[in-house]
Amino acid sequence: REVSRNRASLCGRLRDLRQYLHVLREGQRFTSLPVGPGVPAPPGSAATCLTVQPWGGLPIPALLLCLCSFVAGVIHPWRVTAFERLLWRACRGYLVASFVEMPEPMEDPATGESITWVIFLISYWGEQIGQKIRKILDCFHCQVYAYPESEASRTEAITRLHGQIQELSVTLEETEKYLAEVLDKVAQVLPTWRVQVQKMKAIYLVLNQCSFDVTKKCLIAEVWCPVRDLTQVQDALRQGSYQSGSSVECFVQRVPTSESPPTLIRTNKFTAGFQSIVDAYGVASYQEVNPAPYAIITFPFIFAIMFGDVGHGLLMFLFALWMVLYEDSPRLRQGTNEIWLTFFEGRYLILLMGAFSIYTGFIYNECFSKATVIFPSAWSVATMANHSSWSAAYLATHPSLTLDPNVTGVFRGPYPFGIDPIWSLATNHLNFLNSFKMKMSVVLGIVHMGFGVVLGVFNHVHFQQRHRLVLEFLPEMIFLLALFGYLVFLIFYKWIKFSAADSMVAPSILIHFIDMFLFTSNAENLPLYPGQVPVQVVLVVLALASVPILLLGTPLYQWCRQGGLTVGAVPVQPLATGDQEPLLEGQEAGNSVNATTEDVESGGHSPDAKHLDFAEIFMHQAIHTIEYCLGCVSNTASYLRLWALSLAHAQLSEVLWTMVMRNGFVGLSYVGGVVLVPVFAAFAVLTVAILLVMEGLSAFLHALRLHWVEFQNKFYVGAGYKLCPFAFAPDTWE
């Protein structure tokens, strides 16, 4: 700052000297010429205004030089017209004013712009007119310079100014060199200074949140600290006290509190993306079951069910693998595009989604909508042709042929892995896949919801609420399994019980399930097994009986427990009704600074906290019961989105192949090879834009909804808040 201030001062002084030099030069041209009445004015000068008459036979300029005084300076070009008009009106023309532009532009000290100043030279006579002119000059902020009267003095002043300008230019050049050296040194240490200042401000911000003790000499900080890190905190405080030379050693004391602790979930670069998905729904309550470890498997798998394609999954896997291999590259980590940073932070999630999509793609036997023949097909067309009357006329009139699995040798058993590739050639492959994927979605959805209900057991056991195992977990499982678990049983039982031989008489599961709720039977829809109707009646009765237990069990238990506590409770005498003084460290060791005697004696809960509001508990439980019972129905139907999106992805992929890529194979000559290049380019662009990006985002959002609403809603509260420890953000100085 000091060097810059000196440089600015030198620049201003040099600008004044140059302006003064130009003023003297232009004034010398005007006052030293013996101009007569017939000689024109100096070039570049404005019109000369005279109102006096010739006197004593002398020319007018000679008379002026003998009797008048001079005022010279510079003025902003925008003010010249108004300045000249005001001079004429104020002095009534008893002056001679000359205006000429400066030969070189100079900086305006007010705005910093480079402008061409206007030099003025005013000759006047009379003291009164001189005072008026000086006031007008002050009004227009003109820079006025001393103008010597004699020509010799003006020549001497010009010579002196040349010397001063030369010396000042040398001094200014040396100053700029020194300033450049100073700035070079500062530029090397400026990042370090910035980090130090930011750290100091962050530290003082935290220190301002601490409390003083009674002596006003010690700071008391109440913080949350993980138990695992408590030893490290104590060592750090001990080292800080030693290094600072403090006479009083810092120490840590655990204090009781009634506040709910924050939640700290330690993550690494692999699990951080999955934990972010869970935290977007809600941060886990303290010591609540965290769904993120289970979502590492279930989330990519549910996504892959809707995105099953070997080719598309491989492209997604390779893209994520590239980000994982080059994750330490500064070019990737320090991008400014928010969408790119979102992809980069979730690179491990995308990696697993691509891997699982390859797996489900092999199950669906789809690679860019085309089937792959990994194993020989289990269907034999030759056997069917040998055992049927397929003549040439029959083949000519029937473009589609039916393979009957009841004919010996036509169907030789299930395909080793996934869907048989012959189904891609069948005209009824959509009917087959729809039935398969719909039942698969229902089965996986009920298993997923049941797993969520089971995870609630760990919450009940950990929080010492074992009554909820009987009054909540057991009714929930009975309701879910008696109705929808039985539906899964019917699906598998029908798959196992009926074969191709008796498939025509196989009953409808949907009709059986509807009759189950109506407590009726349909004579046209044969039972799956003997005694099916009584079993279904018992299951519906069990499901209905579990609802009042779920609704009233926990509120009645809390009411009975509250009554027992009220009878045997020991009253606690609170402090005075006035302001309660907080207990400081000097009064009672181990107590919180902001804790009162009442909080300490009651273990962090006031006596009134034991008396729970029965109406509030009942209302909360009623909402939970209605949400769970209705949710089991709606959530099961919601899992059908797995079937719908899987079908949509397969059909879009097939349409894209048929409408785009297939056209490149139409030409059999060399023309087809030429056309294939732009066709493949269009196919690749549309595949990435529509099937990978848009369909991938759609499947991701649906998988996100299934985890948030259908899965986590069964056991996860998410009413906590994160532990935000004091730390220096590394992004600022990496």
TrEMBL record:
Organism the protein comes from: Quiscalus mexicanus (Great-tailed grackle)
Single GO biological process annotation from the record: vacuolar acidification
Name used for this protein in its record: V-type proton ATPase subunit a
Gene: Tcirg1
Function text: Essential component of the vacuolar proton pump (V-ATPase), a multimeric enzyme that catalyzes the translocation of protons across the membranes. Required for assembly and activity of the V-ATPase.
Any one Gene Ontology molecular-function term assigned to this protein's record: proton-transporting ATPase activity, rotational mechanism
Places the protein is found: Membrane
Topology within the bilayer: Multi-pass membrane protein
Region of interest called Disordered, as start-end residue ranges on this chain: 586-607
Highest taxon above the source species: Eukaryota
Keywords assigned: Hydrogen ion transport, Ion transport, Membrane, Transmembrane, Transmembrane helix, Transport
GO terms under cellular component: plasma membrane; vacuolar proton-transporting V-type ATPase, V0 domain
